Amino acid sequence: MMTREEGEKLIHQAEWVTPPSRGDLLSKVRIAWEKRNHNLVVRRVQEVVELALKGGVRVLGGEYPKVHDVAPVFCRLTHQKIGVPNSDLVPILRISQWLSEARAPSFYMEMDYPEEDAKRAYDDAQIVLNPVKEMLDIK
């Protein structure tokens, strides 16, 4: 499989986990939200962001590191290869870092995330996923 194809596949997997704006009731994130499982929402959204950014790195011809926060690599490549201003990438860096740090505590129930954090995570997924697709011209 070619690099762009691999990247697009990862990004499309990220889309499956989080519903588009029209709503997809089969989405794991939506189901977790409806069940008020805020920790699972945070955990699944972290997966969305990680998959989207790893897909973006592959589309740009890079190798992603085997870590959960790949935003620094994605942002560097995006700036270098397609000229996206660093200022446009700051939200992606911030969101990826926050979700990567929240990943383990949400999964192992070390922290009980409130509804506000779950909502923030869900909104953050769209803030990352949609621009990544636009920057890389992914349909």
Keywords:
mainly alpha, 139 residues, 71% helix, globular, Four Helix Bundle (Hemerythrin (Met), subunit A)
Describe the structure.
The protein has one domain: Up-down Bundle (Four Helix Bundle (Hemerythrin (Met), subunit A)), CATH 1.20.120.330. The chain contains 6 helices and no strands. The protein has helices at residues 3-17, 28-34, 38-59, 71-82, 86-107, 115-135. Helix 1 packs antiparallel against helix 3 (38-59), helix 4 (71-82) runs antiparallel to helix 5 and helix 5 (86-107) packs across helix 6. The radius of gyration is 14 Å and the shape is globular. The protein starts with a helix and ends with a helix. Residues 19-26 have low confidence and may be disordered.
In short:
The chain is mainly alpha-helical and 139 residues long. The protein has a single domain, classed as Nucleotidyltransferases  domain 2 (Four Helix Bundle (Hemerythrin (Met), subunit A)). Helices cover 71% and strands 0% of the residues.
